[in-house]
Protein: Sugar 3,4-ketoisomerase QdtA cupin domain-containing protein
Organism: Acinetobacter tandoii DSM 14970 = CIP 107469
Amino acid sequence: MKNFSRAVQLIDFNVKGDDRGSLISLERNISIPFDIQRVYYIFDTKTDVKRGFHAHRNLKQVLVCVNGSCQILIDNGKEKTTVLLDSPNQGLYLEGLIWREMFAFSENCVLMVLASELYDESDYIRNYEDFIKECQ
Ligand code: TYD
């Protein structure tokens, strides 16, 4: 994971905790390395479901599993690795041409995604062969 690519990083968030519990604040260009334009979250996902199966051309994202757990397969066209997201204290940063598949969602999983751009279908590559061609 460490040497996978500079376009993929696990970010440890600063947790503010006291005897009441914990708090994490995500701020654009500070804890999140871009200007957040969009937030969406995936929830009520069936455990045997796989999602994603796409790459982005320009989008930057941070994926945070704020509740439960899930796994993310990431593929830069040369190497693949799987990341377990099971803590609200960490975010998975993905930039540019990275194929991603999300799976093994726990029953209570809430996967929040912070994105650098508004939704734009033209930024998606949804065909794996096209992705491999664009990587070259
Ligand atoms: P989809 O890309 O299939 O989700 P996943 O990557 O998790 O497999 O998106 C599901 C639907 O939601 C699809 O019709 C596109 C739409 N959508 C938006 O309208 N806005 C968004 O920000 C996102 C991420 C998806």
